[in-house]
Automatic annotation (TrEMBL):
Coiled coil: none annotated. GO terms for molecular function: protein-N-terminal-alanine acetyltransferase activity. This is Ribosomal-protein-alanine N-acetyltransferase. It comes from Fontibacillus solani. PANTHER family: GNAT FAMILY, PUTATIVE (AFU_ORTHOLOGUE AFUA_3G00765)-RELATED-RELATED, RIBOSOMAL-PROTEIN-ALANINE ACETYLTRANSFERASE. The keyword Transmembrane helix does not apply. Pfam families: Acetyltransf_3.
Length: 186
């Protein structure tokens, strides 16, 4: 079996999640601010964080995705995660997802992390398309995606069923050819 790829940016190590990270994930997934636009209810037990780690790691083992723990150098504490889900090798595409502890919001963390994950996706995985679906009201995600080169492609009415209701989504995407044109600017 292939080892989970560890990535590195100037400030962060992106590594595989383990059950030892459950307390860190619980710390921010129990915060309603973090789960407001997420397809999960806020956590009330550490067990939920362990189940999420297991689900993400299983998707990697099934060749369906990657989810990296974001740790600040040289600390090993997890401050967020980012990665690809709905990875479809046959179509050379994946969907990006992420979340971050509120203490680290608006500090350029996700911008730096997403740039490295995009590089990995396009250059190492051979992706042609990276997609992102966000809640129309999530202005932080909108700004992040636009800043990292994604383009809005459309508004999808009642696209997801989350927290017992249908919710709209905005789809963003970045193609390999667009990435190649802009990668020196990142």
């Amino acid at each position: 079996m292939q080892l989970f790829p560890q990535l590195e940016t100037e400030r962060f190590i992106l590594r595989n999640l383990s059950f030892e990270d459950a307390d860190d994930l619980f710390d921010y997934f129990s915060n309603d601010e973090v789960t407001k636009y997420y397809d999960l209810e806020s956590f009330v037990e550490v067990r939920q964080a362990k189940e999420l780690i297991q689900r993400w790691n299983s998707r990697y083992l099934e060749n369906k995705g990657f989810r990296w723990a974001i740790t600040v150098k040289p600390d090993n504490r997890v401050i967020g995660t980012c990665g690809f889900h709905n990875w479809v090798k046959k179509y050379y595409k994946a969907e990006i997802g992420y979340e971050l502890h509120p203490t680290y919001w608006r500090q350029g963390v996700m911008t730096e992390v997403i740039q490295e994950i995009m590089r990995f996706g396009f250059e190492d995985l051979g992706l042609n398309r990276i997609e992102a679906f966000i809640d129309p009201d999530n202005m932080g995600s909108r700004y992040l995606l636009e800043k990292t080169g994604f383009y809005e492609e459309g508004y999808l009415k009642d696209y997801f069923f989350e927290k017992n209701q249908f919710v709209d989504a905005v789809i963003f995407a970045l193609l390999k050819k667009q990435y190649d044109q802009k990668k020196d600017k990142f």
